[in-house]
Amino acid sequence: MTVQCPYALLDLDALRANLARVRVLAPRSKVLAVVKANAYGHGLEEIAHALRAADGFAVARVEEAIALRRAHVLQRIVVLSGFWDSDQLTACIHFRLEPVIHNLAQIELLANCSGAKSLRVWLKLDSGMHRLGLAPEEFPQVLAQVTSLLGPRAVTLMTHLACADEFGDCTTQAQLALFERLTAGLEAERSIANSAAILAWPRAHADWVRPGLMLYGVSPFAGRQAQELGLTPVMTLKSRVIALKAVAKGEAVGYGRGWTAPRPSRLGIVAAGYGDGYPREVALDTKVLVEGQPAPVVGRVSMDLISVDLTDLPQVRIGSEVTLWGEGLPVEHLACQAGTIPYTLLCRVAARVPRVIKQVNRDARQSCL
Ligand SMILES: Cc1ncc(COP(=O)(O)O)c(C=O)c1O
Q1: Could you tell me the distance, in angstroms and rounded to a whole number, from the CA of residue 37 to the centre of ligand 1?
Q2: Which of 72, 142, 64 is nearest to 107 (CA)?
């Protein structure tokens, strides 16, 4: 059966190699693989199964964690946004999830829940990001409370860095110093580092690292390529040319007549648009790869289609393969041209786009997830 276009081709060997890279960079830390938001658009369950060598997983929501348990994922699962009500707390207990405790309302729910004794939690300090987390002045007291409710072994201490992708940044140094001061001498395990901190801040590695973006083979740093960081992209978004069109010099193309042919031109119409997650806001010089050759996107991106200028690629035919991002065309680069970050492009790959596992044997049939 032909695969629907566009499709997201997933290289699970690259995923596992990126996990191995994390282990090389942080050899003394356990790895909590961050698979929230549908594993950054790659597909939650498949990615979790492929990452079974990870020591645990992190998701944002209780529902995502339950989906992992229902998919027979047995490792530890941390819920980064924690629980917000008693039903979610009960679900955490029932499914052996490890919620993040970040505010005092959660402590009240914990104290009033008779079944909570078996729970493991991650206690989060707001060390300067000012998003989720306990204020430094309330942290010691809440830690004492949680420890008396659940026991000392049930708590992992964590914080999150606001600017780890900025080398030598003094915010990171201040956040690290505060976390180190407030957790000094405590027996509990600690966790600080996201991808950028794993790569740039060895001081932040601690007992558990929490890589997200780098596992998917994408650089967390503006202006630094994944390849130079030893990472390989997992997702390549692919499609095909579904129509060819000749336009005369001076003819305009697409909604709003967004591009005018500067010469007699041959256009390829590609099955991909913002309805699939391809960004509408691309800059003028944005390119895709057609049969491996760069070709500029012309006119506005529409919901299901883009037009590319194939005038200099006469060999291209209907059915020719198009790479929108991924292998040979870093998603970081396209994100930059679309005025965004790679996280948003990956997370926005639409539900209608099939995720397809790249087979090790290239001749083998590709299997749909
Ligand atoms: C608390 C926390 N830890 C770790 C991560 C992983 O971050 P990254 O994808 O930059 O590695 C995230 C992602 O947003 C997060 O919210």
Answers
A1: 11
A2: 142
Q: What angle do CA 65, 70, 74 make, to 5 degrees?
A: 75
Whether 211 lines ligand 1, by a CB cut-off of 6 Å, is yes
pTM for the full predicted model: 0.95
- Provide CB contacts within 8 A for 146, sequence distance 6+: 101, 107, 110, 121, 123, 154, 155
The residue whose CA is least distant from atom 9 of ligand 1 is 212
For domain 235-368, which architecture applies? Answer: Beta Barrel (2.40)
Burial call 342-354: b when 16+ CB within 10 Å, e when fewer: bbebbeebeeebb
List the catalytic residues: 36, 255
Contact assessment for residue 30 and residue 56, using Cβ atoms and an 8 Å cutoff: yes
Report the alpha-carbon distance of residue 264 to residue 341 in Å, rounded: 35
The number of angstroms, rounded, from the C-alpha of 303 to the middle of its chain's C-alpha atoms is 23
All structural domains of the chain with their residue ranges: 12-216, 235-368
User: What pLDDT, on the 0 to 100 scale, is given for residue 176?
Assistant: 97
C-beta 342 within 6 A of ligand 1: no
pLDDT in tens, 27-76: 999 999 999 999 999 999 999 999 999 999 999 999 999 999 999 999 99
Residue to substitute in 18, 61, 79, 80 for testing ligand 1 pocket (most ligand atoms within 8 angstroms of CB): 80
Q: Is the CB of 215 under 6 A from ligand 1?
A: no
220 CB within 6 A, ligand 1: yes
Whether residue 115 contacts residue 90, with contact meaning beta carbons closer than 8 Å, is answered with yes
> Which of 47, 81, 194 is the best mutation target for the ligand 1 pocket, counting ligand atoms within 8 Å of the beta carbon and taking the most?
194
- Residue range 12-216 in CATH 3.20.20.10: yes
